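Input record (Table S2, row 352):
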Amino acid sequence: MLENLTEIEKAALEALGAVRDEAALEAWRVAFLGRSSPLMQVFAGLGGLSKEERPVVGQRANEVKKALEARLAAKSEELRAAALKRSLEEERLDVTLPGRHLPRGRLHPDTQMLRELYRVFGEMGFQVYRSREVESDEYNFQLLNFPVGHPARDMQDTYFVDADGKDADNPTVLRTHTSPGQIHAMREYSARDPQNPPPVRIILPGMVYRYEQTDARHEMQFDQLEGLAVGPGITFSNLKGTLTDMARRLFGPQARTRFRASFFPFTEPSAEFDIECFLCGGKGCAVCGGGWLEIGGSGMVHPVVLRNGGYDPKRYTGFAFGFGIQRIAMLKYHISDIRLFWQNDLRFLEQF
Ligand code: DAH
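Output record (3,4-dihydroxyphenylalanine complex):
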């Protein structure tokens, strides 16, 4: 019996020498210390031994069991340490390897242009006023002095939103210009003190929508910047001064502006304004043709519009202007096609 135990111990220790990982160690434990291992069978057979043999064999079996358990614990610890060492070596950070490139985002050229204009007009005391993109016909046209059926509506190809024939004379539209914001703003300001409405000096940025046949110069959606100043004694020279100052702040102190008589229902008199071409200095080039770049529309706010906004045209006057942001960005960055702005082509966007 005692020899048998020595054999068991020897076999176990030999087998342990070949164990290289946790799984093999567990298999070893089951084989040599598990319920049906030879060692446990010795314990089970103790009852059948003689009185003299029993304590001797029992003691020896216990020794063997303790010894094997101690080796098991030591081996387990050894394996854990080896695994840790291996992982530290294999996963060591090599700080000399090149990093993974994280692409940096940037602002859309249109947003950059808008922000530059906010700065320019902010310096002149204009506040940004935001207004809705989905409008009623009333705000987009009627209150701006385009009555139903007025031919000037033809200047603005419009998306009408079909509302089941309801509101036939006041359908919902995607705003065709930022000018309806003038009415919202004037009504909000004048409501603060209807007898003595406060002066207004705001810019109204935002997306506008037109049912366009798109080409290099026309998109069905684009950003506009509208300006509105209302107060006692505001004159056309204030308008010219403001827009000329804008041109100088954007394009340099030599920039000149030009005003050409025009028509808009919501201004009287009305003018289109041009900035002298900064590419050719006004000599005339492929971009401008005759030396001037057409920027937008402007004029003195029509008395009907002032009244619709809650301002008495006998006491108040005002000027307004509006132009496309992309138009200015195209001039500034020499962009040849307006459709590039919303195509989300990184080759274009990454240039700004
Ligand atoms: N709303 C006009 C358009 O989109 C632009 C415009 C012209 C705005 C004259 C104005 C203005 O405020 O006074 O075509």
